[in-house]
Structures are given as C-alpha cells and as structure tokens.
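User: Just a sanity check before I run the rest of the batch. Below are the structure tokens for the first item. I only need the designed sequence back.
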C-alpha cells in the first residue's frame, strides 16, 4: 500500500506565518470507491491567497480548517481510476491540496480537468494558463479596460499574475510599466517580458521618490492600474492616475500579516473620477474559457512568457510558501513532487 505525504494546517498564525503553523504527516492511501480517481501530483501551486485562509476571520472564503490538508491547486497524472471519463496517464489539474496524492470524486463539477500538454507544459496550467493567468486577464481586460496607446501599471510585476498583466497590456497596444522588488526582477520584466519600463520600489524608500520614478516611467500619466501590493506603492500611483482611470484591486500582499495599510490619497478617487474595483477571480467562472483560450494560445506560440520558482518535494512547501510572501520567489511559485 502506498503512503501519502500531506501538509496540514497545525495552528493559525499570530501576525507573520511560520513553519510551525504546518505539520507533515504520512497516511495510507484508501482504496478507491466507484466514481473516484487517484491523482498523483506532479506540481503543487503556492499562492498568496493561502495566507488569508490560514486566518479564522471574515473574508470572501471560508477559513482553512485546522488539522486538514492545506488547500491548493495541483497538476498531476491519473494513477488509478474508477470513473469512465478518466484513465491512468491522463494529465489533470484540480484542487488536490498540499499532498502527494489526492482521491477525487471525479463526478463533482470542476473537481478535475483534463489538460493537453502537447504545446503547453503541465506546470503552466497552475500559472500563466491557470488561475493566476486568468486573474491577470480578468483584472486587466474587464476592469482596467485598456485601449491602445494608454498606459497600464502593475505591481508585483515579475510574479505569476503581474507578468501576465503587462504582456496582455502590450498585446493590446498599451505602454506597460511594472513595479517590482530588485534590479534582477526589473531587468527580467523589461528585457524578457517586454514591458516598456519597470520601477524597482526597493530603490525608492520614500513616497516622493517613488512618485518621481512613476512620473518618469509614465510621462502621459496612468490610465489602468492593476494592484497586487497596496501601501506605499498604491499611494505613489494614486496622484499619477489620469482622469477616469481604472484601478483593479487584485491583491494587497503588503497587508497579509494583518498590518493596516492606510491609503494616503483617497481624495484622488474623487478628483480624478477614478473607478476602483476589487475582484475575486473564482467568482467570474464565465470568463475563464475565453481567458484560458487567449492565454493558452499565447503560451503555446511563445508570445506569453513566464518564469517559475520550483521547490523540490512536499516537505519544502511551507518554507517556499513563506518565501513567496516575502518576495523570495521569482515568477510562479511551485513545488515539484516527482
Ligand atoms: P507573485 O508571484 O506576484 O508573488 C508575490 C509577490 O508579491 C512577491 O514575489 C513580491 O514581489 C511581492 N510582495 C510580497 N510582499 C510585498 C510587499 N510587502 N511589498 C511589495 N511587494 C511584495 O504572486 P501571485 O502572482 O500569485 O499573486 C499576486 C497578487 O495577486 C497577490 O496579491 C495575490 O493575493 C493576488 N491574487 C488575487 C486573486 C484574486 O482573485 N483577486 C487571485 C490570485 C492572486 P517583489 O519581490 O516584486 O516585491
């Protein structure tokens, strides 16, 4: 009998999360019942939203239960099947969680999706051609509504979501400007991803300096802003927004440990008649097919580039996740299990 290594949420963080909040266990795999599929995970996706699920507080989603397998997107291969639509060897994506194997009730709508790896690598279905890619697509296309010639700015620009936002904006004829932490990430954003400019926020320790850098990088102001971070970065963007600009609030990672993130210039929303819209990508399932079609085509044809940070083995997941929250990742953070 095969055993399954799993990572459970052992306790809820007070402030910053730590490795002690997780516990690695080994459990025997149960025999499959009718309709079930055993999936062997190749990749586990680590995503910032998981930090929110570790808390027991009011949110758009239920908290992750204690002593249960950490929630998470997974990509893998069918190892055994008692469902007619799946056979061993099929490549599938699902929400298998932080574990090496998952027993899935395949009849449950959306539980398991077969993917084609002929032109798109399996891991990309957790990144550019998966939830993060669709997130970038939705916030840009449906909220920022970019028009050719406009300027779009995105924070956490080298990451899974941000990298997609800027490249999609470029494909729509916009000027794309990223904000990222460090010279390496900024160089990558411009030279590899093709953004027009990228501001290293770590070089600009105060608001005045960051506003000046944005002014240089966005000589015609900002029409669309895709927010992943909050705090001083948002404060610097606000005064540079053009009249009737659109702001997609996707993430506020600078406050995920519970620290307050005050907004210095809310009056600019009024003065510049801005449209500010927060969104949760899983609440817009109707746009996923359209978004995945564009993202899949762009990745398959090499038009959409992405980068991955890959940790090895299930035991490495907690540290890799904690690193993601501190910007130690460079591109989509994954854990490779086999
Ligand atoms: P990323 O790959 O972008 O990784 C997170 C990045 O955030 C880090 O690499 C780091 O980049 C940056 N970061 C972390 N802490 C700070 C900080 N204090 N100040 C500034 N930057 C920080 O992750 P994703 O692409 O997966 O996610 C990006 C954002 O999108 C997150 O906020 C996430 O919560 C959100 N999201 C929202 C969804 C929705 O439905 N609304 C769905 C999916 C993601 P750097 O080194 O450049 O600072």
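Assistant: Here's the designed sequence for the first item:
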């Amino acid at each position: 009998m095969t055993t399954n290594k799993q990572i459970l949420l052992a306790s809820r963080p007070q402030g910053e999360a730590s490795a002690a909040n997780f516990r690695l266990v080994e459990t025997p795999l149960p025999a499959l019942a009718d309709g079930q599929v055993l999936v062997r995970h190749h990749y586990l996706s680590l995503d910032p939203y998981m930090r929110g699920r570790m808390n027991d507080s009011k949110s758009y989603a239920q908290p992750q239960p204690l002593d249960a397998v950490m929630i998470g997107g997974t990509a893998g291969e069918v190892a055994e099947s008692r469902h007619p639509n799946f056979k061993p060897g099929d490549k599938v994506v699902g929400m298998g969680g932080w574990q090496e194997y998952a027993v899935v009730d395949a009849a449950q709508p959306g539980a398991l999706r077969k993917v084609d790896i002929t032109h798109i690598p399996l891991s990309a279905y957790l990144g550019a051609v998966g939830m993060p890619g669709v997130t970038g697509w939705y916030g840009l296309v449906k909220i920022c509504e970019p028009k050719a010639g406009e300027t779009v700015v995105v924070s956490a620009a080298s990451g899974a979501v941000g990298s997609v936002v800027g490249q999609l904006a470029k494909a729509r004829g916009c000027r794309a400007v990223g904000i990222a932490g460090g010279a390496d990430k900024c160089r990558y954003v411009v030279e590899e991803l093709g953004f027009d400019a990228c501001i290293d926020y770590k070089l600009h320790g105060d608001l005045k300096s960051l506003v000046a850098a944005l002014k240089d990088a966005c000589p015609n102001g900002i029409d669309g802003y895709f927010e992943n971070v909050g705090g001083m970065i948002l404060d610097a963007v606000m005064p540079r927004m053009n009249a009737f600009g659109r702001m997609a609030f996707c993430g506020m990672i600078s406050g995920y440990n519970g620290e307050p993130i005050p907004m210095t210039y809310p009056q600019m929303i009024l003065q510049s008649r801005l449209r500010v819209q927060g969104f949760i990508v899983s609440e817009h399932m109707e746009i996923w097919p359209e978004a995945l079609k564009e993202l899949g085509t762009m990745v398959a044809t090499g038009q959409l580039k992405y980068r991955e940070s890959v940790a090895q083995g299930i035991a490495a997941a907690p540290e890799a996740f904690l690193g993601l929250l501190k910007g130690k990742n460079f591109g989509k953070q994954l854990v490779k299990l086999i």
